[in-house]
Design goal:
Layout lengths: L3 H9 L3 H23 L6 E5 L3 E5 H17 L4 E4 L12 E9 L1 H5 L6 E8 L2 E9 L8 E6 L4 E3 L2 E2 L13 E3 L4 H4 E3 L1 H6 L2 E3 L4 H9 L5 E4 L4 H13 L2 E6 L5 E3 L23 E5 H9 L1 E3 L2 H25 L29
Parallel strand pairs: 3-4, 10-12, 10-13
Antiparallel strand pairs: 1-2, 4-5, 5-6, 6-7, 7-8, 8-9, 11-17, 13-16, 14-15, 14-16
Helix pairs in contact: 2-3, 7-8
Length: about 350
């Protein structure tokens, strides 16, 4: 606890963090129940970006309204940053609630049962409490993972812990986003141990799986603040660590989302935060970080150009394989009774 103001605040109100955690758990559970109730219903889907990208449904908005109303009722003096809010409320206040009402919307639309709700509480941009609801397979009604600073991490009422080994195992699992190795090259030592990789489609679920020890580690390329605000603390309280790749190309422990060079844009707008992260056992993610090398922009450009060239060559080859028939040179119709393909008819034997 590096912030003297937070230390002083907690000395004057020791139950503050517990009350924040309890409210986050309550709201995550209620929003999760709303998601489950809507899972098989007909949905109205809109898209926030061109090309049918970044979908949003009425369930996203209803879950967000439920959560933000609860925060305003219980902590009216706190700020709120939520994914679907047109504008953050009190972004500069000491306490800021960061909300993702439905992480994995594409999964949800397609009835793929890996989705989550994330509610993180920051004090001056430092995570101090949080809860996530996730639809993990072993719990048909979902589970709520939660933590507060210095209080440990729990799945419902059971303590949780990250994967304990210091090195990854080739028999284990890791969550890596699609295209991760277009940006990074893994050294030989890491390639031998990285294990099987998974893409769940939900950062909140990935964080929960890391905190529970089911995934050895996870990597994320520029997630949004609402994706990770709760998970960063839950993983840390489960004995893990989050490393952030800084603008100086170093990996450092993530403590504050306001630290320059660690995902905060130059204009200081916290709602635009984004950085590449490694999440897992502290020693393990240090090992992973040491064995990753960033690929140059020139290399990625070359890969893109090579892919385009290969696709064009393939298209031309297919075109050559289909000989065009000259006008007026169509094949004559086969005589009536002829078998297909011009084969010689077999004489009928009586």
């Amino acid at each position: 606890m590096d912030d003297p103001r937070l230390r002083q605040l907690l000395e004057s109100d020791p139950a503050l963090l517990l009350s924040l955690e309890q409210e986050a758990v309550k709201l995550a559970s209620e929003a999760g129940a709303l998601l489950l109730d809507s899972f098989h219903k007909q949905l109205t889907v809109e898209y926030k970006a061109d090309g049918h990208r970044d979908p949003v449904t009425e369930v996203d908005r209803n879950a967000e309204a439920l959560i933000t109303a609860g925060i305003r009722r219980r902590f009216p003096e706190h700020g709120i940053l939520a994914e679907e809010m047109p504008q953050a409320l009190g972004l500069d206040r000491d306490f800021l609630w960061v909300v993702d009402p439905l992480d994995g919307t594409t999964n949800f639309i397609n009835r793929y049962p890996l989705v989550g709700v994330s509610i993180g509480v920051l004090y001056r941009a430092n995570p101090v409490a949080g809860a996530v609801f996730v639809t993990l397979p072993m719990a048909s009604g979902g589970r709520v993972l939660h933590a507060r600073l210095g209080g440990g991490a729990f799945a419902d009422d059971s303590p949780i812990q990250v994967y304990p080994a210091k090195d990854p195992s080739k028999e284990g699992l890791a969550a890596l986003p699609t295209g991760f190795f277009r940006h990074f090259r893994a050294a030989k030592d890491l390639r031998r141990k990285i294990g099987d990789t998974r893409v769940t489609g939900s950062i909140v679920c990935d964080m929960a799986l890391v905190a529970s020890g089911m995934l050895q580690f996870a990597a994320f390329t520029r997630p949004k603040l609402w994706d990770v605000a709760a998970g960063v603390l839950i993983v840390r309280e489960a004995g893990g660590e989050t490393l952030v790749r800084t603008t100086s190309r170093q990996w450092e422990p993530l403590r504050s989302f306001l630290k320059p060079g660690s995902g905060l844009p130059k204009d200081g707008d916290l709602s635009k935060w984004g950085a590449t992260l490694l999440v897992g056992n502290a020693a393990l993610v240090e090992m992973v970080a040491k064995n990753l090398r960033a690929r140059s922009g020139l290399w990625r450009w070359f890969r893109r150009m090579r892919g385009r060239w290969a696709r064009r060559v393939g298209a031309r080859s297919k075109a050559r394989e289909r000989p065009a028939e000259a006008p007026g040179m169509e094949k004559p119709d086969a005589p009536a009774g002829s078998p297909p393909g011009g084969e010689k008819p077999v004489p009928h034997r009586s």
